[in-house]
Design a protein that fits this description.
two-stranded antiparallel ribbon; 2 domains; 4% strand
Length: 142
């Protein structure tokens, strides 16, 4: 679509997604943020802003997924990525189980802003484990 695979590298140590490696990639990221800022700054009904932002987010997601699929990894990189993804997934499942056990033992209803740490903890744990796994496996030369 718009972005090109040679503008980006896969994110190895900081979660999922892409990292710009050329000035075109940086410009692409700035343009994405600029469109979102523009949509939020114009005088429109909040529901229209939500719809426009959602449509833009879907477009960007499709474009980024297309770029991620086009980035070629050698066999070693594919193996490292698969192991790191597996480790992150299991960590997030275990973290979510811990959150559920904690919420059930506390015995109070958690909603609204109090729910945010329960959602962020498993994701943050997965990002950390994925980054550490990538680092260790990369250094081992697996």
């Amino acid at each position: 679509m718009i972005a090109k695979a040679n503008w980006f590298n896969r994110r190895k140590y900081t979660g999922w997604g892409l990292m710009p490696k050329t000035w075109q990639g940086v410009l692409y990221v700035i343009a994405i943020a600029g469109v979102i800022a523009f949509i939020q700054s114009i005088r429109l009904d909040s529901n229209v802003k939500i719809i426009l932002t959602g449509v833009w987010a879907i477009f960007v997601l499709i474009d980024v997924l297309q770029v991620m699929a086009a980035i070629k990894l050698d066999e070693r990189e594919q193996r490292i990525e698969a192991i790191a993804e597996r480790n992150a997934a299991w960590t997030m499942v275990a973290s979510m189980a811990l959150v559920i056990v904690y919420i059930s033992t506390v015995g109070k209803e958690i909603k609204g802003i109090d729910l945010m740490p329960a959602l962020i903890f498993p994701i943050a744990a997965g990002v950390i484990v994925k980054g550490v796994s990538n680092f260790i496996l990369d250094k081992r030369g697996l």
